[in-house]
Design goal:
two-stranded antiparallel sheet, mainly alpha, single chain
Length: 167
């Protein structure tokens, strides 16, 4: 089911999944239907199916991003320390030139940022985190920082005036 889910989230059709893992297409269709049920269960029975699917996609994005960051770190260690790294089932070390130097330009920071962002997006979908909302006036227009400061000064002046007349 995990392989079917990953391939489906990557956009593969039931036929392509069937051919990829060597399972009857009818079985894959039943698996995909069950996955849809599981996605709904993951976020609660009361949630809509598209919300569950979005959460599942974001989980997969985060998982892949962490894998990419881990791979980049292994490649960096291979370049820096000569450690072996496994690539598609084959152990390799960084190639060095005649001057015994090697380089690797990974995207570890970008991968970790993607993982962070997809985790935050997942949290927003699940209602764990709420987006910040701009302050607005009575008509719903966004207020600038200058507007907010002016309103704060006015409120303070009114409080001071009220305490000076009552004191």
């Amino acid at each position: 089911m995990e392989r079917v889910e990953r391939l489906r989230l990557a956009g593969a059709s039931c036929r392509a999944i069937s051919q990829s893992i060597g399972v009857n297409e009818k079985t894959i269709r039943m698996d995909v239907a069950r996955l849809a049920e599981l996605w709904v269960e993951r976020v609660g029975d009361s949630q809509e199916a598209h919300r569950a699917r979005a959460a599942a996609v974001l989980e997969e994005v985060a998982r892949r991003a962490f894998e990419a960051a881990d791979f980049d770190e292994k490649c960096e260690r291979s370049v820096l320390f000569g450690e072996e790294v496994e690539i598609r089932g084959t152990k390799r070390t960084a190639r060095r030139d005649d001057n015994d130097s090697a380089s690797f330009k990974g995207q570890k920071v970008a991968a970790l940022n993607l993982a962070r962002q997809s985790t935050m997006d997942w949290a927003k979908i699940m209602g764990v985190v709420v987006d910040k909302v701009a302050q607005t006036d009575g008509a719903g227009n966004d207020l600038s920082l200058a507007d907010l400061a002016a309103r704060a000064r006015e409120a303070r002046a009114q409080r001071e005036a009220a305490t000076s007349t009552h004191g």
